[in-house]
Description:
Structural class of chain A: mainly beta
Number of domains of chain A: 1
Largest interface: A-B, 42 and 42 residues
Strand order of the largest sheet of chain A: 2-3-4-7-6-5
Oligomer: homodimer
Protein name (chains A, B): Pyridoxamine 5'-phosphate oxidase family protein
Keywords (chains A, B): Oxidoreductase
CATH superfamily of chain A: Electron Transport, Fmn-binding Protein, Chain A
Number of helices of chain A: 3
GO molecular function, one term (chains A, B): oxidoreductase activity
InterPro entries (chains A, B): Pyridox_Oxase-rel, Split_barrel_FMN-bd
EC number (chains A, B): 1.-.-.-
CATH class of chain A: Mainly Beta
Amino acid sequence: MPLDHGGLEILDTEECRSLLATTPLGRIVFTDRALPAVQPVNYVLADGDVVIRTSPASRLATAAGDAVVAFEIDDFDTASRTGWSVVVIGRARAATGSAELAALRALPLRSWAPGDHDHFIRIHPQLISGRRIPDYSAPAV
Amino acid sequence: MPLDHGGLEILDTEECRSLLATTPLGRIVFTDRALPAVQPVNYVLADGDVVIRTSPASRLATAAGDAVVAFEIDDFDTASRTGWSVVVIGRARAATGSAELAALRALPLRSWAPGDHDHFIRIHPQLISGRRIPDYSAPAV
Lengths: 141, 141
């Protein structure tokens, strides 16, 4: 596994895509009134896109509706100090059109937050990268 | 507990500061070559600042050395779909000066990534906000 300048393993695109399919929760990174913003969101994948469900009135819908955003997932173990992260960068866009909305409503995606969430944002990945902290305590194979 | 427009509980500043002291890992959000960037980092608090240890040659040191950044922590439970997040916004700056560096080196902070990490970034919180997904399945008290 190749290492980056910081000694972290570089995950290949295929592994990043696999990891994206394993977790229910990520963090969307965008800009809100010229300040960096980050918000946890649950998500599903649809045709390779990250799909998020939110309220039409949310800050997320307003600020990230048509912008280049980052989307991050990770899983770390505090005891062993190991783990991995995957970051997707792509343009977010609000889903429109009755056929697309019907398809998205049929996804197994319910917002964890209460209330009306009939607004869908999809992020089409243009860059995918991932890193893993190697477990140096594990026996070499 | 007051709710935001999305039905999430708004955590007060004191609770956010308490939560910041409970976790070892967060995510720093910055801009790298005009693109949104996000990276998991372990951290400690020092005099109320978020302190991160990185390599002097890292992308983080280069891009977030003197910029307004966001820093996010969260903890969610997939089964109950509950959890919380805290976001700090503030200016990041590289620590300089031998006295400051000596103090930071004495902190219980070792980067989880391998290699040289004798570069310290501290974020002085200017805005702190937090949200919690209420557990509607819990009995009302």
